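Chain X:
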Amino acid sequence: MNERIKDIYEKYSHKFSSHELKPNTLYIVSTPIGNIEDVSFRAINVLKNCDLIASEDTRNTNFLLQQYGIKNRTMSYYSHVESGKADHVISEIGSGKSVALVSDAGTPCISDPGNILVAKCIENGIDIVSVPGCSSLIHSLILSGFSSKKFYFQGFLPQKKGRRTLLEELSSVKMPLIIFESPFRIYKTMKDILEHFGNKEITISRELTKKFEQVVRGKVKTLIERDIKTKGEFVIIINNY
């Protein structure tokens, strides 16, 4: 465990460790989007004491668990297997266990696995507890400087079929629009934004909360001409007023 984190955790963990988890319950646990110090004490308590952790990426989750000295059972639970594994998780919960659902980073169910499982839990009368924490879309919106009174979250755009039609529809939504994008399509998406929205003010955020966090702001044309490092996941916000 990182010594600095260990000192903080040992100083305060006694205040939270006595909170027992409920059986027959799904815990939706938000984890850091970059900086591992952003995890909450409540999240640590749940991950430490639950019976099973359903994880989108067990490698990332195991790294986080190691930092806090947590040794717990994990299972892989990513998008392509969610439909097949949801019933197994329901069965585990139904047998009296507490299960924690975590995504690769941030809050589960937001462009990440979890919606199918949550719907099945509701259908089966299973208790669901949300353990709040980091969300890259909210972090990016705050850093954009754009109005946050209302906004539209799109998530990832279709790569091919329906992409142009969706962009045309979004261009009529007059509020900040939040789009997730991969490093492989960031420049293509900026060119599409220029075509469908015009030369709007946008912000592009990457590597949020990490050492090399970057937020660039400006008109679309200007940012297309900039050399933006294509690493990490991107959050684009279009000021579509």
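Chain Y:
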Amino acid sequence: MATVDVTREHSLGKETAKERAQKMADKLAQKLDAKCEWQGDELTFKRSGADGSIQVSEDQVRVVVKLGLMLTPMAGMVKGEVEKALDKYLA
């Protein structure tokens, strides 16, 4: 089992960052058929073989993805996609 953990600082404020995290999650849900749900300032997502969360604070967004055994070889690609998405949505 592999874990991808990426944190990005931002200057958007918590509410704007949450809105952008939601947009990112909407894309994720559509692309990966993942189920997403907010619990306070943390958005959790789950699909077969992977689950994780997007944690939003006043000045940071942290994405943690836990990959199951079958998806572990794709950890590098998943990390790259998460970094690209964070760069795009937090710009």
